[in-house]
Design a protein that fits this description.
2 domains; seven-stranded mixed beta sheet; 10 helices; 14 strands
Amino acid sequence: MQALRTDVVNAVCSFCLFSILFIESTVSAQGLIAPNRQLDPEAGMSAILLGTGIPLPQADRASACNALIAGDRVFLVDTGRNCVLRVREAGLTDINGIFYTHYHSDHFIGLGEILLNYGVAGLDKSIPVEGPVGAKEMVDGMLANYSLDVSYRIAHHGDKFSTAIMNPTVTESEPGVIFDEDGLTITMFPVCHEPIAPAVGYRFEYKDQTVVFSGDTNVCPAFAEGARDADLLVSEVSNQAIWDRALSMARAANNQRQVEMIQEGLEYHAESLALARMAQEVGVKKLALTHFFPSFPPTEQAEANFIRGMSDFYDGPIVVGRDGMEVAP
């Protein structure tokens, strides 16, 4: 009887192991989980658009999140909702730092999930987090929300779950050069997202290439200067023509609240045609669009409609971002 029981247990365990391996191989084959990304220390830079959406939920778009790869180093710029899914899909098993542009929640709400999942995966280090003033308050609030969860995991798993991963090293910085190591220079620059302040963008320079992330901003001289001569500008964008139609419908419905909400949103985002003019004037070589206001389905027809008219003012390539898209300078 004991031998029979052992055989049954072994058979069940073998079936479970087979099922797990089958599911994992099927998921990988379907492209739902990417293999771990192999980074080349001799490579240049590229940007991965991990979240191209806005606060309103959309299945096809996580909210604001980007990755910058420089050789074998990976940095995130903002960590919006569902960014953790896109990080995994991109095969990013480690990161060297996280930079925040400002503290609207759609730009930081995913931080806790990213750190927690790295901890579950076994990453044992404190990840540097940097942003303008407000970073410490934001991170402290996130850590407070996770305090019970972390205490449970440590009590259950002991030192198999890293305490360091849930205690990022936080730095608050003013605009200027904030990182300069091993050939990579990162500069924080002010942008125009009033009444939200501070708000910044980031300029990465490595191996004679420059990649710039706008953060949230309207088109203004500070943004233009930060983007000057970029090989790649990853910028948020709004479409005035689409919103004009929405405003007409809201006025026709006598919905004054909606009218004012739209107008206030347009005040602090980069209008598409103005962005195209600016990119041309400051010598941007390639423009990648993200954080679409309003958002739209990732289809060729919708993309063409959103960027209509931009090529009249900008003669470089325009990349209409989709989640998971990698863009080289």
